[in-house]
Amino acid sequence: xxxxxxxxxxxxxxxxxxxxxxxxxxxxxxxxxxxxxxxxxxxxxxxxxxxxxxxxxxxxxxxxxxxxxxxxxxxxxxxxxxxxxxxxxxxxxxxxxxxxxxxxxxxxxxxxxxxxxxxxxxxxxxxxxxxxxxxx
Length: 136
Hints:
- The protein is mostly helical.
- The chain has helices spanning 3-16, 22-41, 46-67, 89-97, 106-135.
- It has five helices and no strands.
- This is Transcription factor IBH1.
């Protein structure tokens, strides 16, 4: 994950978000972490494109829902997950965990999962370094 983009987003969050709203701050920090991780991975990875689309869609929905009164929405029914022929059910679990995994074949799903895990571990290392530098 690009430390520069993440630290710049953290400084913006620190300037704009009041100290009292802890839930809003944590959501914005999570959004900044995922966005910088996806931008660092680049557009060549399917999971990064899916993650960026999801984050943009959620921010737009949040903006428009705050502009109007909220309507009562019935809860959506979840589809039954059936394993695809010839693939183990573990692949279905991976498809749910990796952003954009629903549209991938098995080989590309494993490749994208490996890259996604690598980016998540680098994100954790960066955040540990940030916390370590702030606390010391």
